[in-house]
Amino acid sequence: MLHVFKHELRLIFRDPKFWIPFVIPPVILAASQGIAVSRYGGQIMEGMEGYMMLLLGCLMAPMGSPLAGDSFAGERERNSLELLQLSPIAPTRLFWGKLLAIVPFPVVFALLAQVIYWGTHPEISTVSALASILGALSAVLLTTSFSLMLSLRVKTVRAAAHMSLFMVVPILLLVQLGHESFLSGLFVPVTTLAISVLLTILATVMSMRKFVSL
Questions:
Q1: Residue 70 · residue 80 · CB < 8 Å
Q2: Helices 91-102, 65-77: inter-axial angle, 10-degree rounding
């Protein structure tokens, strides 16, 4: 499993295009916020900092989808999935090695972007900041597990990446409609994270069984 983990990390670091999605959301959000402030004044952003921090974390979450999509669909597209299954490494170890190489990237980048935003906006309360971080973690877990399931069921990386982007719409709608209650305390964020963890475990077990049965 450790060998697969290291191999996947080498592939990720070798291809610079995988880093592009992690840079785009913070740049777009900062640019849109700067345009709004320059056009309408700083008053337009008063009370919106917590919402923007939550939105930033949730926008970063699906950026790991290309990595998850490439994990198995990429192997199939490169005609190397069969060779991978014939290797002496147990299928479960192969699966966990690939999964563990994917998850850290969206988690680290989402948290890093939020911490930097919080540092530049100290007026955000600790409760709102922690709620935003928990929301980002929930979004990362759900989108990564969903993308991983798609990667095992489609034939190309492009199809996996495109289909996984459908997760962005419901996440943004939930942020737009429920950010006030979500940021008002920690009960809703903690409950959301607990549900996300359970759904992620379920999706991961299903994906592992699917990979073993291929």
A1: no
A2: 140
- What pLDDT, in 10s, does the model give residues 71-129? 777 777 777 666 666 666 777 777 777 777 778 888 888 888 889 888 888 888 899 99
DSSP letter assigned to residue 61: G
Give the number of other CB atoms < 10 A from CB of residue 180.
9
- What one-letter code names the amino acid at 100? L
Q: Which residues contact 23 (CB under 8 A, 6 or more apart)?
A: none
C-alpha to C-alpha distance for 33 and 104, rounded to whole angstroms: 28
Q: Is 185 within 8 Å of 127 (Cβ atoms)?
A: yes
The amino acid sitting at 189 is P
Cβ neighbors of 59 (< 8 A, separation 6 or more) are: 25, 29, 168, 172
Contact (Cβ atoms closer than 8 angstroms) between residue 63 and residue 144? no
Q: List the alpha helices (DSSP H) in 152-186.
A: 157-164, 168-183
Contact in structure between 105 and 44 (CB atoms under 8 Å): no
Question: What is the token pair recorded at 185?
Answer: 């305390």
